[in-house]
Amino acid sequence: MGVCVKNEKTELFMGRLGKNPQLKYTQTQKPVCHFSVAVNKDDEERPTWHKVVVWGKQAELASQYLKKGCEVLVRGRKELKSFKTKEGLMKSYEEVNAGLVGFTFNQK
User: Fold this and answer.
1) pTM for this prediction
2) What's the CA gap between 39 and 13, in Å, rounded?
3) DSSP labels for 52-91?
4) Which of 4, 9, 56, 91 is most deeply buried (CB count within 10 A of its CB)?
């Protein structure tokens, strides 16, 4: 069962990772970690997916300790990202820039 709370600025949700986190480093060597979280709601048949990005030391910890299927609690600001495809079309997606990622060490 997932939890999802929203207001204009902040998203708070609990769910499970869909795949292992991806850790990368910017050109200035700042760690950044991306992962996706599935939130199951009782009244919906399919989960809601959230793309999450985490920065700094928290990014390195997320990459080290989180794996596919781990339950996480995420709090962050939703941002709309846009990019241009090779064909010249504009595409956009939502991403949560997490300020807090909570998890337990005794994951199955």
Assistant:
1) 0.82
2) 7
3) EEEETHHHHHHHHH--TT-EEEEEEEEEEEEEE-TTS-EE
4) 4
